[in-house]
Amino acid sequence: MSEISFEPPRGMRDFYPEDMAWRNRVFDAFRAAGEAAGFVPYDACVVESYELLARKAGEEVGEQIYHFNDKSDRHLALRAEMTPTLARMVAARQHEMRFPIKWNTIAQCFRYERSTKGRKREHYQWNCDIIGEESVLAEVEVLGAAVDALRRMGLTKDDFRIHVSNRALLSELLAASGIPEDRHAQVFLALDKRGKMPDSEIAAMLRDGGLEEAGVVKTFEIMDLKSLDALPDGPAKERLSELFRLAGIAGFAECLEFDISVIRGLAYYTGIVFEAFDVKREFRAIFGGGRYDNLLTTIGGDPATAVGLGFGDVVVTELLKAKFGAEAPLPKKGVYIGYMFPEQRDAALALAAKLRAAGECVDLALRKQKPKQFFAHAGTGSCAKAVFLGPDDIAAGKARMKDLATRTETEIVL
Ligand code: HAM
User: Fold this and answer.
1) What's the pLDDT tens digit per position in 70-108?
2) Centre of ligand 1 from the C-alpha of residue 396, in Å
3) Which domains are assigned to the chain?
4) Atom 33 (ligand 1): residue with closest C-alpha?
5) Which of 3, 66, 166, 345 has the most crowded Cβ, counting Cβ within 10 A?
6) Does the beta carbon of 100 lie inside 6 Å of ligand 1?
């Protein structure tokens, strides 16, 4: 029999307590920001029908799906993202729901991709989506929640930037350059690879997608446009300007930047798209999302406009570790209770029960210890306070609770 490896499968992660401390810090910020902005929680099964997730648009995510046949030969898959599942759930109750809806969730997602820095084969993704609202205020609310989450984690405008564009704008520009609309989806997918492969290969992809040489040149010219002001007026530009204006009122315009090169790798986006990066561009995308108008109809639902984002746990944790140090930010809370001899064990357990009933978190030592041993352990543990019971304490009916940070003591009744 071959030896079993102690490592998780490639690209998958274990969460030891110190990893869990980081994860909780990130998840707490996600949940708090979602709640603060009125996004209600939902969840769904991790396993989906393959048919729902598989798309033939040549996009990477569609190709990276883990799939299998179950014992009844159903073709199933692990979700690679939450958006198709969300669309399915909404489509199932579309006639009973009152729109717009604002939903959020933290979903574990699986993608069979090359495991590199910032990219795993499994990650958690906070999703915030607004379905059934046309106004650009929906984009502002989704982006505002993401900025709030980043700020709650301790990151500021000096750490990250959200790059924003509009696929509709790009479509207008491509159409004005004589590139027919039925080519745009392929152009988007090719342009999304920019920066990840040489321009010569992008050009080859554009040619494969049916563009003439002039069209390829035009496309690269469009991608060189740097500012919103340089763009021709039209509804797509207006919508972007309105987004920046409203973000100013909401207090995060300083975190936004127009960037025509933001395309997004998923085929379903139709309008404003965005992707956040660290300012030094050392890491992969922190989060990404945009407006998608056709996903519900694609899966058989009624038409509904939607906007949302996916914010992964991997990159932002790398960023936090780079900024604050890799040491896990273990919060100190609760009381550590120990005892000197077996005779004090019952009293220690009774005290633990009493404090727990009063709402305190208590870590009860499972064995007798010498005082030195106990306090050394208490100092390095996760508790903020400690109580050590010896024979004298039991006799007196009281003990001392020590604050491990300030070293001050208060008396408690046993
Ligand atoms: P996405 O850009 O594919 O969008 O993923 C969103 C975020 O999830 C990324 O920016 C990154 O933080 C994280 N992420 C994605 N793949 C991995 C991976 N292999 N390892 C670690 N982190 C990863 C979507 O998934 C869209 N469904 C988002 C959305 C929601 N659009 C509308 N609503």
Assistant:
1) 999 999 999 999 999 999 999 999 999 999 999 999 999
2) 60
3) 17-324 (3.30.930.10), 335-413 (3.40.50.800)
4) 308
5) 166
6) no
